[in-house]
Amino acid sequence: MRGDVIGGATAAVVALPLAMAFGIASGAGAVSGLYASIFGGLTAAVFGGCGVQITGPTGAMTAVLVMIVSKHGINGMLLAGALAGLMQVLLGVLRLGKFVKFLPQPVIAGFTNGVSILFFMTAIDDALQTPSITIITTLVILLALRFFKQVPESLFGLVAGLVMNELFIHSPHVVGDLPFTIPQPTLALMPFGIIGQLIRPAITICLLGSISALLSAEVTDAMIGTKHDSDRELIGQGLGNLVSSLLGGVPVSGAVARSGVNVHSGGRTRLSSILHAIFLLIMVIALGPVAKRIPLASLAAILMVASVRTADWKSLRLMPRARWSYGVIMTITTILTVVRDLTIAVAVGVVLAAAVVMVELASMPRGSEVAPQKASPASTYPIHPDVQVMTFSGPLFFVGTENLRSQIRDSLSKPILVLDLSDVPTMDETGALALKDLADRLQREGKSLYIGGLKQKSLRMLTRMGLVGDLGRSRVCKGLRSALRRASQEAMQIARAESKLCPQQS
To answer: Superfamily for 387-501?
Structure first.
């Protein structure tokens, strides 16, 4: 309980400036962002499928909301958020949560980078109103990231900007009064007459919120070794959006940064995410007079730094090593996200990725299997009892990575895993990165991964994506017997070391 209390309190401190900044940037106002974090976040915490997930306004969502507010007004945004919430609940009830995870990695990277660009652009106007405050806040945030990692960097920058403005600069561009009272239902204000025009924006909010929340839940699973319920998480996120919209808050989503802060601070159960909302409410009531003096330029600086950190820089570094199709799909998805619409961008990206897969399949020898089969031992080579072997067949493309993850997650019971990929003729970047993430997760858990039986195409892809360099060539083998032998040798070394540390009592 102590960890949950500290985690919830720390996440609330981080969420306070972000909720205000995202609310203002969306055009709905700071109070709308606070309502979303408190009431939408509390609802998602109670009903969601990931206990440590912190839900609230996000930069990615803000970039989409700006366009909706400019075209349909704040009331139109509230109706679109409510519709999106209903869609998410329906997806969860129909048990479609897992299908969100089948998106190809270049498509995820593309819309992430596109949203971060939109996110940055929304902060430019406020940043230019008082450039000195923007620069000071940004510098303090960067210094906090470098030297004061135990302190929430956004809060550090916010305090610095507030103090400088009060003592020296005196900019009139501040948050202003925060009429934070018991929220009133907004159902009567929603423009149901234009509901047809809001279906596509609602789909965009639903898609973005679902993807963001489920990816965030995956990240927290890896941090604490749990397994979230995707369908229940979609229901919780949907109810959170519905409550937030009905009370005047902006749409919400699970946030990787705030969820990570909760976990790193000790949060382990649903109590931490519930307390986050309660602590945030207490802080808003107690600090209201101070919050209204916060310069808008400080909030803009927080948004700009957050947008840069949101971008998928790893995907950009992979472009020179990946196939040309990876860069093309990611670039097209990014451009369409910025100039058109997220739903169009994702749809086009998935179609392009599917076309690449079909071309790859057409070039394979006839008779090759196209779906991963259930894991089973692949060799009669004598294996140490602490070594587990899993065999997969068929090409490892983006459509099969979730099956691979789930089978390993559900079946792995020993400290050393050998993946037999003798019957995997090829893989794409998403498959290679899934194996790379698996290796990282097993390493954090104190387990070892060996890969054997690699075909030339698969080995080349793993080398390009950096897995061979991360694991070492001793753990990535073309021959299966080599991988089994080395894994068994490691198991015997561990057993001998343990026997020396814990000798049997006579």
So the answer is: STAS domain (3.30.750.24)
Is the predicted pLDDT of residue 6 greater than 50, yes or no? yes
Measured CA distances, 83 to 67, 177, 252 (Å): 17, 30, 13
Contacts of 166-170 spanning 24+ positions with Cβ under 8 A: 166/293, 169/130, 169/132, 169/133, 169/295
Q: From CA 128, how far away is CA 195, in angstroms rounded?
A: 36
Q: Which residue from 60, 17, 103 is spatially nearest to 310, judged by alpha carbons? A: 60
In angstroms, how far apart are the furthest CA atoms of the chain? Answer: 84
Helix/strand number for the chain, H first, E second: 21, 5
In this model, does residue 33 exceed pLDDT 90? Answer: yes
Domain ranges of the chain: 2-130+199-295, 323-362, 387-501
Three-state secondary-structure class, residue 162: helix
- Mean pLDDT over each residue of the chain, to the nearest integer: 87
Task: Please say whether the beta carbons of 347 and 327 come within 8 A.
Answer: no
Q: What is the pLDDT, as a whole number, of residue 364? A: 66
**Distance of alpha carbon 499 from the chain centroid:** 42
Q: How far, in Å, CA of 78 to CA of 190, rounded? A: 7
Question: How far is the C-alpha of 19 from the C-alpha of 26, rounded, in Å?
Answer: 11
Weakest mean pLDDT among 96-105, 299-308, 316-325, 440-449: 96-105
Give the per-residue pLDDT at 41: 96
> Which uninterrupted H or E stretch holds 263?
helix 256-264
Alpha helices by DSSP H, listed for 265-295, are: 270-291
d(CA 311, CA 216): 15
- Produce one character per residue of 161-177: b if its CB has 16 or more CB atoms within 10 Å, e if not: bbebbeeeeebeebbee
Q: Which residues contact 250 (CB under 8 A, 6 or more apart)?
A: 22, 23, 26, 28, 32, 33, 36, 57, 61, 62, 65, 77, 81, 244
Chain centre to alpha carbon of residue 367: 38
Nearest of 240, 236, 262, 235 to residue 250 by alpha carbon:
240
Q: Is a pLDDT exceeding 90 seen at residue 18?
A: no
CB neighbour list of residue 233: distance below 8 Å, 6 or more residues apart: 48, 49, 50, 53, 92, 97, 213, 214, 217, 254
DSSP 76-130: HHHHHHHHHHHHHHHHHHTT-GGGGGGS-HHHHHHHHHHHHHHHHHHTHHHHHHS
Q: Which residue has the higher pLDDT, 150 or 117?
A: 117
Mean pLDDT, to the nearest integer, of 287-304?
89
| Residues in a beta bridge with 316 | none
**Local confidence band at 288 (pLDDT 50, 70, 90 cut-offs):** confident
**What pLDDT shows up at residue 273?**
95
